[in-house]
Amino acid sequence: MVKLRILLADDHEIVRRGLRALLEKHEGWEVCGEASDGREAIEKALQLRPDVIIVDIGMPSLNGLDTTRQLLQHDPQFKIIVLTITDSDQVIREALDAGARGFVLKSDAARDLVSAVEALQNRRMFFTPRVNDLVLAGFLEKGQTVSRDEAPKLPTLTAREREITQLLAEGNSSKEVACLLNLSTKTVETHRSNIMRKLSFHSIRDLVVYAIKNNLIQIDIPSSPKTPTGPTAA
Amino acid sequence: MFDRRVIFCARGIKGDMTTRILLVDDHPIVRQGLKTILEGHIDWEIVGEASDGVEAVEKAVRLHPDVIVLDVTMPAMNGLEACRVLRRQLPGLEILFVTQHDSPQMMREALDAGARGYVVKSNAARDLLEAVEAVSQHRAFTALHGKSFA
């Protein structure tokens, strides 16, 4: 029997280990490779030709949404499940736009991921109830699959500009970005100027805020308000 | 109510040297990943799991682990608050944070709350064994990205 081959892409090894343990309990499935960022995921997907690719949204260097877009540009037959820590309307829209066939919350991965892989194996899609609700609401209200009225009106960046925005927002210099993308520093500087002009930004701080708001990078904060930091009894 | 017989039996089976560990993270998939690393150690036993700070305190009081591996960002009660409560209720318990906050400020806050160890999630596969080993022997272990101080 031919095994279903799965590629895992998440920047946390601890999460990849958990995912691998979960998926390899399923008879007939094997994890054929792992990647710790979007670029490595694309490289390994092209090399290993997995049946299903599981991609975390919040990866450094190249986030999961742009990884999904680039993978499907290489081969529209790739079947991709997006793993996310949030199912906000904007993230759902972007994942659907990017071409993901599955959408699973990380917090529910232990429960939903096996069902999601099974769905893709059977040429179906898998989404959380919230995604289904959003799609249905958009269909009923607007007669289209997803309502876009609430989406922020933002200038469109090209795929390359989004990549560079993410890398700059992660703290890389133009020279470092050039090195990562195999471009000249001058080319990166030109892209950088175009990005700042398109978005009417004047500082890297504006770019970081934009990257966070648009899910190019993700940050995590404690769920409760920060408590005073003074020494306490140990 | 804490059942001393259960703990006695558990220790009796594995011997007195067994380090009993409670895993706390709101993502089951992360707990699974932590388990795959910790279960390889012959003298360590995962005695329970919890998905938020409230459940962590309840299980720690009931199970009396030696070490608790604790996430910071969790619903209901976050890890820092849970750490302060545990410090008061179970003074002998060693607390190790495994978090995605690669920040000296957060590490300082965790240590002030009474933790003995601090490991960043992105490096957990590399640092976790050494960190649990250290805190189980009441030694400090802190590691931010690329820097560790045992």
In short:
The complex is a heterodimer of chains A (234) and B (150). With 234 residues, chain A is an alpha/beta fold. Chain A is 49% helix and 12% strand.
What does this structure look like?
The complex is a heterodimer of chains A (234) and B (150). Chain A is of the alpha/beta class. Chain A has 2 domains: 4-142, Response regulator (Rossmann fold, 3-Layer(aba) Sandwich); 159-213, Winged helix-like DNA-binding domain superfamily/Winged helix DNA-binding domain (Arc Repressor Mutant, subunit A, Orthogonal Bundle). Chain A is 49% helix and 12% strand. Chain A is built from 10 helices and 5 strands; from the N terminus they run βαβαβαβαβαααααα. Chain A has helices at residues 13-24, 38-48, 64-74, 89-98, 109-121, 129-142, 159-169, 174-181, 185-199, 204-213; strands spanning 4-9, 29-35, 52-56, 80-84, 102-105. Chain A has a 5-stranded parallel β-sheet with strand order 2-1-3-4-5, sandwiched between helices. In chain A, helix 1 links the parallel strand 1 and strand 2. The longest helix of chain A has 15 residues, at 185-199. Chain A is globular, with a radius of gyration of 19 Å. The termini of chain A are far apart. By secondary structure, chain B is α/β, with parallel strands linked by helices. Chain B has one domain (4-149): Rossmann fold, CATH 3.40.50.2300. In chain B, 44% of the residues lie in helices and 23% in strands. Chain B is built from 6 helices and 7 strands; from the N terminus they run H-E-H-E-H-E-H-E-H-E-H-E-E. Chain B has a 7-stranded mixed β-sheet, sandwiched between helices. In chain B, helix 3 packs parallel to helix 4 (79-89). The longest helix of chain B has 13 residues, at 124-136. The radius of gyration of chain B is 14 Å and the shape is globular. Classes of the chains: A alpha/beta (234), B alpha/beta (150). At the A-B interface, helix 1 and helix 5 of A face helix 2, helix 4, helix 5 and helix 6 of B.
